Amino acid sequence: MSRDKKKPKSVIPVSEKKYPKTSERVPGKKIPVIAEEVSLYDERKAAWRVSKIQLIDPYGWHELDAAGVSRIKEKLATLERNTWKEIFVRDARFNH
């Protein structure tokens, strides 16, 4: 069994005289724009603001006991000794 090819309901002939027109020429390459140079943060030390942690649902901070909070505090203090480059590049496999 062979299927019949779909046929358009109407056929509009395309004139060879018609060409697309533009008001200005578009450059052929894209140049990405970023707000700031990413490498500016590489050498800065990490810092955290935890004064506004919500101790209610839905985030679950209220479910932590004193030992859990202490572990988080120790981890953040350890990370503050490093630069962002050390955290995300050098030690990336440990800080996921």
What does this structure look like?
- The chain has 96 residues and is mainly α.
- The chain has a domain of 32 residues.
- The longest helix has 15 residues.
- The protein is elongated and about 80 Å long.
- The two termini are 58 Å apart.
- 0% of the residues are buried.
- The mean pLDDT is 78.
Task: Characterize this entry briefly.
The chain has 96 residues and is mainly α.
What is the β-strand count?
Answer: 0
Helix content: 10-25%
The structural class is mainly alpha
Task: Report on the biggest sheet.
Answer: none
Task: Name the helix and strand elements from N-terminus to C-terminus, one letter apiece.
Answer: HH
What is the helix tally?
Answer: 2
Please tell me how large the radius of gyration is.
30 Å
Percent of residues in beta strands? under 5%
N→C terminal distance: 58 Å
- General form: elongated
